[in-house]
């Protein structure tokens, strides 16, 4: 992994606190040199983890630090879970010298398992001592079943954006199940930042749908130091979208058990919202994703998935193609299945459904469903 | 398999027409001694197979015969598919001496593959010669990846109901992906029969949700000979429900790759409709179904699945139990995971989610998600 650094004014560290039995890095600390503007997007699941509630309550205030742990979601853990979040924030605030309510807290891992706050408290001093500009250890400390850290950067009108993320399983829109932390040196208002985060998340992480399962801890947090150039609202959105889209792509490539990236493209839809809805329907079809795994151009499963959501679908004016090979058009099968199968045998392909309803287009990312996904998720984790 | 017979007035046969490469039975014929009252429920997918459109057009008329083939769904096959349905109905009408529009036609198998009508036409004479009262060959002729034929019977106020079904993959509500054919000797009106079919299907097949994928050929057809006792509307409903529920249970047990039956029970819901909706959300969670496969009592995945659909869920007044072991209550984990894991290690268990919204209850059936499901559905079928 190339050396990647945070924007000026942010430093991070990643340490092993013993939450993961493997002894791998499992606590990350991100610190700003002064309280700064931030915005976030969170899971809409009412079974949200306590840390999500904590961060939501902090929206609108400035932030100095972020603590994240992997190996335990601290979700559905009741009052003990709330105490752990508060203790973690308090310990961090004491170490770096800020207010408790300037500390953001995130967790990822199995749901419903008590998380011992002392593990994090004990590890935090060494994290604080090893803070640096490089993102690598921090990015590794987020990982659960991810096989590689996910880091992306962009520059927008002279401002930098850098983001790190973890994905893997429980990947569904609103949000894709994941954590992502972005930093930018852009000088932006709190309102512009909030609107830009929602806009970019909707067009990136919310167009990723792997197993259709929604999680309790999904969070995207964006911190803006203001040390760099002033950005207009659209420049900021574009900069965030570039990083979020690339992180979403990396998450799809590294989905649990995935061997290939599948782009589901809907064209000719009556609206972008409808196109996204249909794309998600195909993306979450177990049957289609299993066919993708076997490089089987079973386009009927794509049509069935679209028809399950769009009851007004007119099959006679709908077409299905895999990469450039048209397999169904004008109500009839066509094309060469062998050509489509060859396209599907690589590590990435696109299935395109073209409707005759309008001119809206959307692309949703997914991955194939493999035996390994089942094996990974059938393991006893609790 | 015990010898099971149709009600008086119905006879069937099953023959091998060469549609399945294995040479197994793949064409079934069901014949009534005279035109009789029938009703049906069909997939709502607009990519419905031509045979579904054919049968829908026949609703309200009387029927004399039903031809079904497995090994090819004849769906999304365009004008050639329409011609095959018409040719099949015409050949059957000629053989048994009835009108073409008194013949119902069903198909099941891969989508989008041309089906040669001559294979069926050639096989029909031997089917007509071997018509008998026993259901066995007919029930076997429906099967695709099913591992056993599914037959159920009930008696309601002196009338008999008998049904045969095939299930396996693409199992989702509206309809569960499947074919089911029921015969009864009850003397009922066409209107009562139609209402009873919808009522019973809604409470049986539509409460089965295995992979969440909807198919193009799902059909339940019920034929009433009228040779038996007169039934009131509720007696008829109860008789059909008993058979449909048992067939749905057998379909869940025989879902592709399934090793265990999982009952998802929602209690304390504000309405039965809402309870069914939440039950389906849990039933179609890949993560939960994979945990079921591994006998992992990962109840957090159940809560996350419910919360993904019920945005007003109050976690603090929701509980989750596996069989009798309460694992989450009043916002806190509780109970013994080892006890729950032991319950999940058998071939059947119940996960119960209890809400505090009302007193409605519903149960949805599903099965575990295994590596074998993926293997079966990753195979190139076209």
Q: How confident is the prediction overall: mean pLDDT of chain A?
A: 91
Number of distinct helices of chain A: 11
| Name given to the CATH architecture of the largest domain in chain A | 4-Layer Sandwich
Low-confidence stretches of chain A: 172-176
Structural class of chain A: alpha+beta
Distance between the termini of chain A: 32 Å
Secondary-structure element string of chain A: EEHEHEHHEEEHEHEHHHEEEHEEH
Instruction: Name the beta content range of chain A.
Output: 25-35%
Supply the CATH superfamily name of the largest domain in chain A: L-amino peptidase D-ALA esterase/amidase
Task: Count up the domains of chain A.
Answer: 2
Using the alpha-carbon principal axes, give the shape of chain A. globular
Quick one: which chains have the greatest interface? A-B, 75 and 75 residues
Helix content of chain A: 25-40%
Q: For this structure, what is the CATH class of the largest domain in chain A?
A: Alpha Beta
**What fold name goes in the CATH topology slot of the largest domain in chain A?**
L-amino peptidase D-ALA esterase/amidase
The profile of the biggest β sheet of chain A is: 8 strands, mixed
| Rg over CA atoms of chain A | 21 Å
Number of DSSP-assigned strands of chain A: 14
Oligomer: homodimer
